[in-house]
Amino acid sequence: MRYLLHHSDAAYDTATKAYTFTLDKRVANPRTVRINKCTYTAATAASYPSVVYVRSNALAAMAQIKHTVELKASDHENNSNVIAVLEQTLAGHYALKSKDIVIPVHGHTAHSRSFDFYFTDGPTVLDGGASASGGSGGSGSAVTDATIEAFTDPTIWLDLAPARTLTAAFATCSALGDLPKYLYSRSPTPAGLILAGNWDFELVNMKTGLLGISRDTDPSLGHGQALNDSSYPTNGWDQEFQVHHIFKSHSNYTQTAGLFKLNNNNCYVWIAGNGGVNFRNSSNQNVTLTNLSWIPNRVYIISIKRAYDTASSSYQFHWRMEDVELGTAVTEVSDAGAAVTSSEVGWSLGIQGMYYRHIGGPLIGANGILQTEYDNSITWLKNWYGETAASGGEEESSSSSVNATFFVELDVKRRNK
User: Fold this and answer.
1) Is residue 392 part of a domain?
2) Angle at 197 between CA 192 and CA 202, to 5 degrees
3) 257-284, pLDDT tens digit by residue?
């Protein structure tokens, strides 16, 4: 007999955070219970675990054998009610990858008329309701400049406004072909956060009527690589932070381009030849991400959260990269960059040693990983570009807080009478 268990059909207990399904009658003469499918989407929260345990007291009580042991510092031989482990597919989204979970059960003791399920991050029970810290996000005109100004702890906001985009002579840059040499961060980030180019850069069209920044189109006037914060340290960075940047990829797959970096290795990101996206991890090793890639002449928003993962006791980068015009996004979780120290050397738009071949737009950074600030940063960048917020279901962020959802398919084999 196949049992389909959907979250919308369960009774949810807010105290135990467990879901219960009540049967019309008990399961007769069961022999084994096979878990064919199981998916889980966590409620909106500031961060998400890398794996999720599926627990069931009812199925554990029916089990004929000790099927799972959770290793601990002591008393690790105690039986466990974990019936499956779900692996993260996208941030906050989990699925069963093992296809051979079969639990032999006692037919004569399987008298229960209910199935219960709850989900945990290790021993911590996950709430089925959206966390208040997750926030509701923002979309469209609801997100304004004032929204970003109200962030708890903003660290950088490059908006490319003429008043903060200046030539070598400190004249404002507002027209196609103007040559910026300095970028000032917008209030309320530190007033002393000033990025200076190794050469003149140039304002070019990201799309008709919208200017972004790139290297000088006249090669005889130097090759722009990066605009560096030379006035560090301008602000303090927490171990958990987020950064968002909109850019248009250049036209040649075979050439690298540096996007941005904090310090040397805290958050060091570039797009590589052949469509890859690279960063430096906590061991100062260059890593090519698996899910993220770019296509020439496309507009992307790349977002990074540096968040602590309790399962691995380490920090992780939670990546999200959206094709703005298509409204589709991919995500990935990786090792983080180097630990934040008290001697950071500031931001760089672009990376010294790599030509700035793409077109850069605004960049927003903030301490903390509040989901509302994450969502609002992405929406502000979309508004700057002139696109409405996309709602793709595969995104890490969401335009609204959502409760947890799940689906389980059980196959119960019965004994022959």
Assistant:
1) no
2) 120
3) 999 998 878 999 999 988 999 999 999 9
